[in-house]
Predict the structure.
Amino acid sequence: MFRALHLRRSLHHHQNTTTPHSLPLKILTTTTPPQNPKLTRPFCSTPPPLPPSSSSESELRKYLGYAALLLGCGIATYYSFPFPENAKHKKAHLFRYAPLPDDLHTVSNWSGTHEVQTRVFLQPESLPELEAIVRDANQKKQKIRPVGSGLSPNGIGLTRLGMVNLALMDKVLEVDEERKRVRVQAGIRVQQLVDGIKDYGLTLQNFASIREQQIGGIVQVGAHGTGARLPPIDEQVISMKLVTPAKGTIELSKEKDPELFYLARCGLGGLGVVAEVTLQCVDRQELLEHTFVSNMKEIKKNHKKLLSENKHVKYLYIPYTDTVVVVTCNPFSKWKGPPKFKPKYSQDEAIQPLRDYYQESLKKYRGEGNVSKSPDKGEADISELSFTELRDKLLALDPLNKDLVVKVNQAEAEFWRKSEGYRVGWSDEILGFDCGGQQWVSETCFPAGTLSKPSMKDLEYIEELMQLINKELIPAPAPIEQRWTARSKSPMSPASSKSEDDIFSWVPKDKEELATLRARLRKRFPVDAYNKARSELDPHRILSNNMLEKLFPQSDTI
């Protein structure tokens, strides 16, 4: 194989030359029979028989020669075409000696679970530039999948065929203080937006755990915060400007084409590129956060009260323990002040059990002699690591080892018991949550009754999930997070409902077979209406990717 490669490369190099160097090549590739038959051995001739011992030695020498030849060819090929610096990449394989092109972009999602490489990664700086990009791509039938900050753990915004990103379109365009509305470019990040409007005394109604999302992305994927009285974030959208391949730039609101507006608010990037968004804001406020540890028995008893009496509430379940961490957030009253509470433990005392277990685990997995008190070069001191960083490092040692995961979960439960208490801060600071590092997350959302009459199916779901984990001995790390929202009027939102009183629970879900998932999506969402809008606005599917086509195929035979 390597010899043939060498000959082909030599052919390419010498085919237009007449120098003497071409003569050996012609001799090597000629098909003319040799003139002196004595100098050659016919391929079909049979050599005379050899003694048994001589035959075995000959066979051994032959195969040793083959091995040496292969090894020599491999070494020669490797050193003849060494890796340049830009080819030393985790996607480069042995003997793939071609460097990565300068125009090749590596794009990964925030949690590092999905990554693609593409030559087409466009970042317009203005609306006219974005319009020209979409128009040109539509004419050429070139994919330009809209991608934001890549916060979705499933990589829904990625495709190697081409992407468009609005990170350079990140301005606050207009603030209406009286009506508490703000118009922004869709590439602005949540934290940028919050910082840009806080001087006006405004903020967003709710937040997801992370504030690095671009506004266009967080709206399109149906992201949510927590609070049974608060809807998902797409409900904050008053109007939007959408750049479509077939119809150009269109402005949508509940007054202008309401049916398409509600469909496009949570359109998964498949109906057009969201260029501008007008959001309904609220007065900036401080929140009082209360974190305490409970158990499933107490949760069942107090569930309705917790949902109805707290503006924001979430539960964190710790598998293989009976620990349920409850976090509530409510408007802070300066007249009342924070509750009188003195923590029993300092932050260092709360995190120490995890540090101890990390040191113990390092000795086991790296060996006694390889664990020193001082960290290696480039490795952070254990005392400087946060709780989530320590947890991630521990799990990375042996992520499928159930016994290790159980001990890590027990240490986490102990951490939360020692971290009970209160804190006060602005809503954008309090509602965030340190999710840790790499995550494979598949979330589901389902109806959970109403505030006045919860169905309790949300807790039944968790109980069944915990039973499955215990029965199958699944190495499930903590936490399993459960949140609630009110309904959304966007038909493609997982929390879509026509009833104003409905509440929805959001929790992780296991992977489904594609056929089952398609059937469930078709039952839950207006798939035909969505696909019809896609056909009208993006007939060449330049805004789509493999995931979108798998979930919402144009010809669905389910």
Q: What stands out?
A: Residues 52-80 form the longest helix (29 residues). The chain is about 35% helix and 20% strand.
